[in-house]
Design goal:
mainly alpha, 0% strand, 2 domains, 3 helices, single chain
Length: 78
């Protein structure tokens, strides 16, 4: 049993691996929270476009008729 140092030779490695494991878990949790925080900010700040763009999208989807589209477009363009 030479070279094993009273059976505690691998215990030092276990402690190091435990610290590395928990460090990676904490870093992963921090990265996840930051990613969720940033993705929430991006979606709130993302604009839908100009009012004319929104009007064109509504017309393209068939939500409004041509007459209503033309009337609102003229109002928006001034």
């Amino acid at each position: 049993m030479m070279g094993w140092g009273n059976g505690h030779g691998w215990m030092g490695f276990g402690g190091i691996f435990m610290i590395l494991f928990w460090g990676l878990v904490i870093l992963g949790a921090i990265a996840l929270v930051r990613w969720l925080w940033m993705s929430g900010k991006d979606s709130r700040n993302e604009s839908r476009g100009t009012p004319l763009d929104i009007l064109q999208e509504r017309y393209a989807r068939g939500e409004i008729e041509r007459e209503e589209y033309e009337r609102k477009r003229k109002d928006l363009e001034g």
